Amino acid sequence: MPSVAHVAVSLGFLGLLRFFGAPWSWSLAAGVGVYLGTGYWRYFYVAVRTIRRDANGLCVFLRVKWEIQRHLRIGSTIPSIFAQTVALHPDKPALVYEATGESWSFSQLDQLSNAVAHWALGQGWAAGDVVALYLESRPLVVALWLGLAKVGVEAALINFNLRRDSLVHCLEDSRSRAIVFGAELADAVAEVSGSLPGSMLRFCSGDLDLDRLASLKARPLDPLLSSASRLAPPTSDVTKGFNDRLFYIYTSGTTGLPKAAIVVHSRYYRIVAFGHHGFRMRHDDIIYNCLPLYHTAGNIMGVGQCLIYGLTVVVKKKFSASQFWDDCINYNCTVVQYIGEICRYLLAQPARASETGHRVRLAVGNGLRPSVWEAFTQRFRVARVGEFYGATECNCSIANLDGKVGACGFNSRIFPNIYPILLVRVEEETMELVRDGAGLCVPCQPGEPGLLVGQIDQRDPLRRFDGYASQDATSKKIAHNIFRKGDSAYLSGDVLVMDELGYMYFRDRSGDTFRWRGENVSTTEVEGTLSTLLGQTDVAVYGVPVPGVEGKAGMAAIADGTGKFDCDSFLREVQKALPPYARPIFLRICHQVDTTGTFKIQKTRLRREGFDPRRCHDPVYFLNGPAGRYKVLDEELHKAIVEGRVPL
């Protein structure tokens, strides 16, 4: 039954209809009365609360869709769109390299990318060939992949943190014909030199002596680019279209070896355009980009604003929490990018004048924990956060367009079919899709966590799924009979939860949530709580199996470089902040927590080693319930727990 407040609102609405006296008012009033009386008044409540947000989202969606359709009609590519940007802003700074202070105008970036294109043609490469780029972040990375794209050659953007087997795997996965590497990564290339095909050409950018180059079987790239033509390359033989491959970006590899995700020209444009229009960027904005250029956020959401819309982007070689706000002031930045834990690292810094003396009005990124959201905006006086969700390859990206704290995006509850994405029920342990009697997936109700999926339509650039270089990896991300019989959908692998108004909140990556004492434990939520209690320290939370015990026991790996971690005071705070089922049973105190180059916490090794003190090289503690304190876990206690002689 509706509450008194809702009845009052309903009567007031009916009174307004009568006041305006339209001929249809009483008929509509009667219809509204029936609608409300049967319990469907919630639809109107949701509509009133969300109509402005949804209308704004619809305008952004339609604008991006119109722009993409226009580029499809005229046969655009990212290089051809960039050529239009150059014509509009030839002398405006395009990229600024913070490490040297060097500024590249749009004309200079265009000319260097032309030189790259001529160099590529000189090597005999043609449309569809792949060249791996393995360099630390600098503007040359952009010139390289852009120049290759001008002649249809596809770049494979390799994570410069990868070494040995992972590096070789990425080169093989993309079938690269050549590798361009930075001199700073010569040692890493030397480690895998014997594993690379003899036919793979190698080029080095930077200063290496001739003997070193010879040992790597590499040629110096910089002289070749200096002598190449700066004129636009011939494009008569380039058959690439807007839905064809542009380059490859690799997944983070947090659950296995990285996969080469295919980025087509229209996908690149889509990500850039949604960010630009959705977060209301301006043509005079200056973006501070401290994210790696092998990553979607850095090379598409960030650099893309430069190539497509003519914004200036400051490229930082490597993120530095202590230099972040000083850099923003020095380069007059108005927009900053973040990902993963960057905002938390900034909050952990001591206060300084520069953190409020900047001109930054917008922070754009993904992975901002709700526990640090408001602290970040209030302390650093950043007016707006543009949080979004979406893997490089996914077709179900969402964005937070109105600043709802903690939400990574939304989907309309009024018009849900405009953007066909769903949260669907899955089995807790296996992440298998739950099906109804008709064999279709079961949609989640508001407040119920579920797997995010997006319906696939290869004819629509906003809904297509291009997959990975590996067909096997691609097929594993597609399921059928989701929305209706015969359809197909992309499986995100991430668990989200949606509230009554359609706001979505990231819950966990697939397999991260674990069950303990009959309750589901969200590792993301527990990590956020523990990190806040410990002054924004890195924390990894995961479940570990215990023989003979149902579910998984919570374990937390805590970074402590001081060696002064106090288990007793930690437990007192945890007991205040977390319910009993979410409190870590095991603690692992380590010097640092494994993270990717974009600050995603890696738990594969931690899960594998579990709570066995013989496999862990860090101090491990066990929460002794009856004693009410953490005890050092030695081999004898470990054996007693495994044999069931110690209750958990």
| Strand order of the biggest β-sheet | 2-1-11-10-12-13-14-15
Radius of gyration computed on alpha carbons: 27 Å
For the report, how would you describe the main beta sheet?
Answer: 8 strands, mixed
Residue runs with pLDDT of under 50 for 5 or more positions: 1-31
DSSP summary: helix tally: 19
What would you call the structural class? alpha/beta
Gap between N and C termini: 44 Å
Overall residue-averaged pLDDT value = 89
Overall shape: it is globular
Q: Helix amount, in percent?
A: 25-40%
The tally of beta strands, per DSSP, is 28
* Share in β-strands: 15-25%
Explain this structure:
With 648 residues, the protein is an alpha/beta fold. The chain contains 19 helices and 28 strands. An eight-stranded mixed β-sheet has the order 2-1-11-10-12-13-14-15. Strands 7-6-5-3-4-8-9 form a seven-stranded mixed β-sheet, sandwiched between helices. A hairpin with a 2-residue loop joins strand 22 (514-516) and strand 23 (519-521). The radius of gyration is 27 Å and the shape is globular. The two termini are 44 Å apart. The model is unreliable at 1-31 (pLDDT under 50).
